[in-house]
Amino acid sequence: MLFRYVIILLFFLVKIPIGFAQNNSIIGQVVNGQSGLPGVTIKTLDGKWSTKSELDGTFRLSGLTIGKHSLQFSYIGYPTIQREVELSSANSTMDLGTVQFAEQRGEDLEEVLIRGTMASTQAKALNIQKTSSAIMNVIASDVIGKLPDRNAAEAVQRIQGVSIERDHGEGRYASVRGTPLQWNSTLINGNRMPTSEGTSDNTSGSRTSPLDIFPSEMIEFVQVSKAITPDMEGDAIGGSINFITRTAPTHKIFKVNAAGGYNGQAQKEIYSGSFLYGDHFFNKKLGFVIGASYWKRNWATDNVESIYNLDDFSMERFELRDYKGVRTTYGINAGLEYNFSPSHKLYFRGLMTDFQDQETALEHTLDLNKSSMSQRRREGLIGIGLTGGELGGNHDLFQDKVNLKWKASTYQTDMETRRPDGSTNAKPTYKMAVFSSKVDYANLANDGKMYLDLDAPSGYTGTTFRKFLPAYKTAITDKDLRISQLIEMQLQSFERDRIAEADVKYQVASWLSIKAGGKYKSKYLRRGNPMDIYINTALKTTVADLEQEKYNYNGGFLNETGVDYASVQLPGINLRQLDALLEDNYLKEGKFYHLKRDDSSPDAAPSFYSGTENVWASYGMFEGKITDQIQLVGGIRYEHTDLAYNGNEVISKKVDGKDVFEINPVRNTSSFGAFLPMVHLKYQPIEPMNIRLAYTRTFARANFSDLNPTESVNLIFTPPVITRGNINLKPTFANNFDLMTEYFFQDIGVASFGAFYKGLSNVIYSSQSFQTIDGVLHRVVQPENSEKGWLAGFEAGISKRMSFLPGFWKGFGVDVNYTFTTSEMNVPRYEVDAQGKVQVEIAKEALPSQSKHLFNAALFYENDKFMARLAGNYKGAALALVQGNPENYRWYGANFTVDFSANYKINKKVNLFLELNNLNNAAMQYYHGDQRRLEQLEYYSQRGLIGINYQIF
């Protein structure tokens, strides 16, 4: 026994050649019906040799001696299969062909085995989780299809410890264990997905991938790794979410899906459809699969927002926003593989997805401390596209002693404004028209300001945010709203990755394998949002003079608050009129001052930048079976990153009392290395139970916008303000310690408990400091690295069928999980006292975007024909923005949504399904320091789909 420990340790200290006395192999594929079974445990009865099946069900058991062997195939939800084999010659390979796990329904079987509409694919996921070397959770394609989730983000929110952020009610971004979004990596088939920046402040220029561009129908498996191994990409402090796209099935398959539904807020329709076709030719040497999906949905959002004074909490601005739009998501993915022999395979995977959002809005902004109000009408079509593919091979070499895997891939994504259908505007822009008017507000406090009740001064009666409604002293009409601005904006974001990688695995002995590999990735990106602003200088045109439409209530504006906002809402111009206002003939009348914001304008130049990132990665690792119950996995990964960014430096000067701006191109370069040791210990005291311990070192690269070398100097403020990026930012590193205990139920379920701790260094935050330059004190705003921080918590969950109950009741089950996370980081705060001296204070803050409490709770029922699932998802409050003192922090409010899904099997080929989302009409909320001081309140109402799945063969 001691000898095994010594050999494993010496492997990474000296290179001792170790060979096989004999090298006999057994290969095959484990299947159930038309699909391969992943994560099947295959071992000899004496326990000397063991392996697990790949995602397609194929396996290779190597290093066996000549003679007879008893093989056991074990899989959650099925009785164990045993096969007797005999190897008669040295260095031979025996092909068992197909090993079929057939459904067992004998009355003498006391276990509830694979039965029900969802059980078989849930079993796949649990077997991958059980046999994985990393700490991970998995969901499979058919489980995703039976959840009320239409995109990838909403699918992964059902996994223990995963939360999502939404955009207009739909899931967009995912986070593992409540960590900041950019600390989580999103992968496609093991490679990080290129990003296209979001439209909100917290994601612009970030590495966060929007997952609503990825239809859930394109996914075969989702693997959420919470403690990674050295052969995985190392930038994953929170975790990595790996979307595995479909590959060729084991048998011919053709199925279609069609559905229709309704969005309650928009009071309009939803449509979706998909198909999947796959087959094999040439004696099953050539296999292929092709799938496509289409999802079009009308949506609407009722929104109210506010801005507060940071000193007295008076309400400075109050906004009413009525959104409506149409979103379309479609995707195509294809897989092709050719098996030259059991030892050699080539494959190709390709995908294309496109997400477009045609958004319109009519907004009223009440500037309560400026005695004015404005109305903005806007429309734009924003598209996000993702395309890519990969070519790879899997080869067993040198009499099957060595396995070689290689892959070359390229993926790219773009985000851009597009031309809406029917638009007469020549440019594909996001269009806006702003009208404004002076107003006198009533019901002000003695100081001329307006407050909520919790902040109201003595003698002033405020109200709650949900009941807040400003009043005018004198009513205004559409004749008072005069045109003030016309705006055309373009979004331009592009990113491309080109990747080459190879992995070599060497089976040293039945109890030890070693693996090494390398990867090279070249990334190119560019960002920039040009804008044309036309400021009215002479026109007296009002809303009353133009084509109008009534304020679009979408079934009533914010009925949930019980407030009638009609007194402050006015009709707005229609979309045809918005196009007409931006026609060249109208703008050429000379009534507008044209302000162009691009890379040649001082106020916009800092937002235009491009960059390259080249990453070289290599790793070495081992997997050792110390005893029949203990497995040790360890190794080292190293990633080297070279950065080069091009941006613009903007300097503001005073010349003869006037502001003069100078724009200079700037290029900055940097490089860093990440040394990442990792070790996993897996102990299996009994066959259905895992106890896992892991230490991993991971990291998170800085956001693209933080690395942007732009610098701008603004002398208008006192003291002058310098805003810059920081190419020298270090990545954030984490030393991760994980404990996970899992117990897998034979009737397809799992109970788990885990604890985790992450020691953090170089956490990136937005720094505000003061520097004296040429004798003048400047305030400098730029991203910096803090010294240290930590994040810790625990998670617990159970997924259990009530198979021990009699009759009808055995079809019920529960799926519940909870995650608690807390964190702390040290952040310096700078203030200037009355004497002009800079005071520095070290403050302890929670990590941004980190929720303490996450949980999923579901009650389901299923039998051979019917499945129903009622699910709730909760995400606790999270810090969104640090500004001033804690009373002014911006928080994301707690959110709890309830969804329902059902599936009925008419026969073996036809299923009917129902999906209902947001049954409780949960609101999205942000608040300012106190939960009662809301900054944003949004409602989306319910939406649903009913449809049919038809498996032709």
TrEMBL record:
<keyword id="KW-0812">Transmembrane</keyword>
<dbReference type="InterPro" id="IPR036942">
    <property type="entry name" value="Beta-barrel_TonB_sf"/>
</dbReference>
<dbReference type="Pfam" id="PF00593">
    <property type="entry name" value="TonB_dep_Rec_b-barrel"/>
</dbReference>
<keyword id="KW-1134">Transmembrane beta strand</keyword>
<keyword id="KW-0798">TonB box</keyword>
<keyword id="KW-0472">Membrane</keyword>
<dbReference type="InterPro" id="IPR010104">
    <property type="entry name" value="TonB_rcpt_bac"/>
</dbReference>
<keyword id="KW-0813">Transport</keyword>
<feature type="region of interest" description="Disordered">
    <location>
        <begin position="185"/>
        <end position="210"/>
    </location>
</feature>
<dbReference type="Pfam" id="PF07715">
    <property type="entry name" value="Plug"/>
</dbReference>
<dbReference type="Pfam" id="PF13715">
    <property type="entry name" value="CarbopepD_reg_2"/>
</dbReference>
<comment type="similarity">
    <text>Belongs to the TonB-dependent receptor family.</text>
</comment>
<feature type="domain" description="TonB-dependent receptor-like beta-barrel">
    <location>
        <begin position="497"/>
        <end position="919"/>
    </location>
</feature>
<dbReference type="InterPro" id="IPR012910">
    <property type="entry name" value="Plug_dom"/>
</dbReference>
<dbReference type="InterPro" id="IPR008969">
    <property type="entry name" value="CarboxyPept-like_regulatory"/>
</dbReference>
<dbReference type="InterPro" id="IPR000531">
    <property type="entry name" value="Beta-barrel_TonB"/>
</dbReference>
<dbReference type="InterPro" id="IPR039426">
    <property type="entry name" value="TonB-dep_rcpt-like"/>
</dbReference>
<feature type="domain" description="TonB-dependent receptor plug">
    <location>
        <begin position="130"/>
        <end position="239"/>
    </location>
</feature>
<dbReference type="InterPro" id="IPR037066">
    <property type="entry name" value="Plug_dom_sf"/>
</dbReference>
<feature type="compositionally biased region" description="Polar residues">
    <location>
        <begin position="185"/>
        <end position="209"/>
    </location>
</feature>
<protein>
    <submittedName>
        <fullName>TonB-dependent receptor</fullName>
    </submittedName>
</protein>
<keyword id="KW-0675">Receptor</keyword>
<keyword id="KW-0998">Cell outer membrane</keyword>
